[in-house]
Design brief:
single chain, alpha+beta, two-stranded antiparallel ribbon, 2 strands
Length: about 55
């Protein structure tokens, strides 16, 4: 699928409750990787969660 088949979507982060945009480009990337679900965390919460996981290893 091409980027023009997607439109930006506003989502709400499940951690902080802020609204963030899931861009058409990100949607195309998710589809290319075979991900079935939209992200549930905003980019900053995703980054913080990733950092926390790395620190626990």
């Amino acid at each position: 699928m091409e980027n023009n088949e997607y439109t930006d979507i506003n989502l709400v982060c499940k951690d902080c409750g802020s609204e963030f945009v899931f861009t058409a480009g990100e949607q195309a990337f998710y589809a290319e990787k075979g991900f079935d679900h939209n992200p549930v965390r905003c980019p900053s919460c995703r980054k913080a969660r990733k950092q926390q996981r790395q620190n626990n290893n």
